[in-house]
């Protein structure tokens, strides 16, 4: 049994002993702490009520967790808008659409069926800051409770935000509904038996796209490992070919991550989801600038021609950004770190290499629905097959490795000395150590795990073989440091 408490929420396996897994006691404790800190974060006049949106994916434990969360909220005197089955981005948007004070998403994202989690949102429908998350963890650990009396209990209302989310996506200026409809696309969607089976076909239908949906029963009985990686998407790849579809779409259980399959059944590669969307948006801005005789900055307004991703994401995003005259920035790993950097730079587009597209014109959160609509707009505009589109982007390969250590104290020593060894290269140490070999357009990123004594090592180069060679060369240096 596993329970992981972090600044972004609480997640764990269902069942077992309190404190060792995600049990009813843990769910109540952390929901109560969220309410306590909500009042501190957003003070209101005495008697004025707070409202929190609660949405869930289709996990088997979802209803149980939802009942506990909603019961705890109303016992704290907080009103609840129960969104029911709702993707993570749907719940995020629901917070602002309903002018709520916060939100709780019940989902363990790409984790297997035995997992569930509470993801905590602020009044903007965005994840809490590190300091706010830590305050909730500290409050929960105290275990001091003071619930509302019967006259002060909260109330529950129910509202399905699915159609409002779909409309919000289609209404985005960069989504070309006419071009998509005229293209006559046929796609296959792997909805992994969760909320993607509800919202994704609805979006595609509204865009005039023919949709074949696999694993479309939202029962949480995942047909395969729910993380949208190529090894888990063999049946989708086969279905795209068998159905003579233009595109395959895979989402994770809470529909914030996205992976595409080319018409020939080959993966588009998860890293290139964001790359393709960014290339489309920058080309669109450049087209506006040329047509109107204005600067790229003016054409991108109210945003700046800037992209952002985390340090472990592909360099291809930087390449396509700079190709159009834009500027790229890197952030520490973690969605909240990326969105914080995007806000600071007023970025046009950002996200993560795991298929997470963050488009501020919609909202500051990963949204597979937005990613699909923008990708289809790009595909319709380019009038080419998905496999042909993939070839137009810089080609890189990422190798993933790790160093296991018996002594976790060695981690900081290794990272510190690596900066000295590679001092002549471009070093970024905002999150571990990233060494960029600019002339060769290669990089290695080393960062320590928060849960075990290991260093995760990501390396990127022009070929898979070279990426592995690069990783092994840095690992050899690290082992030499250990030997000293």
Q: DSSP helix count? A: 16
Distance between the amino and carboxyl termini: 38 Å
CATH superfamily of the largest domain: Alpha-D-Glucose-1,6-Bisphosphate, subunit A, domain 3
Rg, nearest Å: 23 Å
CATH class of the largest domain: Alpha Beta
Number of strands: 20
- Look up the CATH topology of the largest domain: Alpha-D-Glucose-1,6-Bisphosphate, Chain A, domain 3
How many domains make up the 3D coordinates? 4
Sum up the overall morphology in one term: globular
Work out the strand percent. Answer: 15-25%
The percentage helix is 25-40%
Question: Structural class of the secondary elements?
Answer: alpha/beta
**Average pLDDT figure:** 95
For the biggest β-sheet, the strand order reads 1-2-6-5-3-4-7
In short:
The protein has 484 residues and is α/β, with parallel strands linked by helices.
């Amino acid at each position: 049994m596993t329970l992981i408490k972090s600044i972004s929420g609480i997640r764990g396996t269902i069942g077992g002993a309190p404190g060792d897994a995600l049990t009813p006691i843990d769910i109540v404790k952390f929901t109560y702490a969220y309410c306590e800190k909500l009042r501190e974060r957003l003070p209101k006049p005495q008697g004025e009520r707070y409202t929190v949106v609660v949405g869930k994916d289709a996990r088997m434990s979802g209803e149980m967790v939802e009942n506990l969360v909603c019961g705890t909220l109303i016992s704290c005197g907080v009103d609840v808008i129960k969104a029911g089955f709702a993707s993570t981005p749907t719940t995020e948007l629901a917070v602002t659409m309903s002018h709520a004070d916060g939100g709780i998403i019940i989902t363990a994202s790409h984790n297997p069926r035995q997992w569930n989690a509470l993801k905590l949102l602020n009044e903007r429908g965005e994840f809490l800051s590190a300091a706010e998350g830590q305050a909730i963890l500290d409050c929960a650990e105290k275990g001091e409770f003071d619930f509302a009396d019967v006259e002060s209990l909260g109330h529950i209302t129910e509202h399905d935000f699915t159609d409002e989310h779909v409309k919000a996506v289609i209404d985005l200026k960069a989504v070309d509904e006419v071009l998509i409809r005229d293209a006559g696309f046929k796609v296959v969607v792997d909805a992994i038996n969760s909320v993607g089976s509800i919202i994704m076909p609805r979006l595609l239908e509204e865009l005039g796209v023919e949709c074949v949906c696999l694993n479309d029963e939202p029962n949480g009985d995942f047909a395969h490992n729910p993380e949208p990686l190529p090894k888990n998407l063999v049946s989708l790849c086969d279905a795209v070919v068998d159905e003579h579809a233009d595109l395959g779409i895979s989402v994770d259980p809470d529909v914030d991550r996205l992976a595409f399959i080319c018409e020939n059944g080959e993966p588009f590669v998860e890293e290139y989801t964001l790359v393709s969307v960014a290339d489309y948006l920058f080309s669109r801005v450049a087209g506006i600038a040329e047509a109107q005789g204005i600067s790229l900055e003016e054409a991108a307004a109210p945003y700046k021609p800037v992209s952002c991703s985390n340090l472990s994401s592909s360099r291809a995003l930087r390449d396509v950004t700079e190709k159009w005259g834009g500027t790229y920035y890197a952030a520490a790993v973690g969605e909240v770190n990326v969105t914080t950097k995007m806000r600071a730079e007023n970025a046009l587009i950002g996200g993560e290499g795991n298929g997470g597209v963050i488009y501020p014109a919609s909202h500051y959160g990963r949204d597979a629905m937005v990613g699909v609509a923008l990708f289809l707009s790009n595909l319709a505009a380019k009038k080419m097959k998905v496999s042909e589109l993939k070839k137009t982007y810089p080609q890189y390969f990422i190798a993933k490795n790790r160093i296991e250590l018996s002594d976790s104290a060695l981690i900081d020593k290794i990272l510190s000395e690596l900066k000295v060894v590679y001092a002549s290269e471009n070093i970024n140490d905002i999150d571990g150590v990233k060494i960029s070999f600019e002339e060769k357009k290669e990089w290695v990123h080393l960062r320590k795990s928060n849960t075990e004594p290991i260093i995760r090592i990501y390396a990127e180069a022009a070929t898979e073989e070279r990426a592995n060679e690069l990783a092994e060369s840095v690992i050899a240096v690290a082992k030499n440091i250990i030997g000293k």
